[in-house]
Amino acid sequence: MRFFKALLGAASLSGLSAITAQAQDVAGKPSEGGYWFQESATPVMDELLKVHSLVFWIICAIVAFVTILMAYIMIRFREKSNPVPSKTSHNVLIEVIWTIAPVVLLLFMVVPSMQLLYMQDRLPETEITVKATGNTWNWQYTYPDFENIDEIISNPLDETQATEQNKPYLLGTDAPLVVPVGTKVKVLVTSVNNMHAWAVPSFGVKMDAVPGIINETWFEVYDEGTYYGQCSEICGILHYKMPIEVKVVSKAEFARWVANDGSFGDSIATNTSAISTAIAARD
Ligand SMILES: [Cu+2]
């Protein structure tokens, strides 16, 4: 077990070094030429990275072992050095080993995998709920907890708008989903037409949006910032234009946003029932 803990440690270190520094105001988006995961922003993503690292190193070891074995066999048993081939067709010991070894390896992988699946699937006591509905071609968000907040239609920005607003093209939207930091957020995911998937890589969240079905997932973001994702189920001609932008704000700012009927403007919050609901959700 200590060996695997050491393996995990080494793996997560190498993973971290591959992550490039993000711009200050953006906490989760793809990086140019990036090939590793985005930096984790939630407990689920932390666990996902650990399981990935474990499985990744096991796979590397298997690939190396098989490659070396193949090379050895090709050289050692080539026709020139082995003119009279062996007629052996069975070796009980070897067959037992190559049956048991993969079973043991699979057990090492399946236990943490199942733990992760349960963690993603079993919602903890969530504090607020948002509903994400996939349309052709945008995401629509509603806040069942806060009646005063109208549905948010989150449309992609075109290239000019994205440049003007200093947001990444095909990731930035005109109206992000707004959630508080350090809060367990339940996400209800569905669709009105065909299948989509609501996915934010740095949250470790990818949930199918299926018409007639409401799927549940959850996240709890460590830090304030803007996190990007995309529709991750090929849904049609404008699939690439269904970005997901999540703006994570402080709990106080979120309470003010709710009280202002879903606006970050300077207007003084007057909706006291919304404030108390938001504060109740916060506590
Ligand atoms: Cu889609």
Automatic annotation (TrEMBL):
GO biological process: ATP synthesis coupled electron transport
Residue stretches making up the Cytochrome oxidase subunit II transmembrane region profile domain: 29-124
A GO cellular component annotation in the UniProt record: plasma membrane
Membrane topology term: Multi-pass membrane protein
Key words, A-Z: Copper, Electron transport, Membrane, Metal-binding, Respiratory chain, Signal, Translocase, Transmembrane, Transmembrane helix, Transport
Cofactor note: Binds a copper A center.
Ranges annotated as spanning the membrane: 54-75, 96-118
Localization of this protein: Cell membrane; Membrane
This enzyme's EC code(s): 7.1.1.9
Cofactor: Cu cation
Domain Cytochrome oxidase subunit II copper A binding: 125-260
Cleavable signal peptide: 1-23
Domain of life: Bacteria
Catalytic activity: 4 Fe(II)-[cytochrome c] + O2 + 8 H(+)(in) = 4 Fe(III)-[cytochrome c] + 2 H2O + 4 H(+)(out)
Family: Belongs to the cytochrome c oxidase subunit 2 family.
Function: Subunits I and II form the functional core of the enzyme complex. Electrons originating in cytochrome c are transferred via heme a and Cu(A) to the binuclear center formed by heme a3 and Cu(B).
Official protein name in the record: Cytochrome c oxidase subunit 2
Species this protein is from: Litorimonas taeanensis
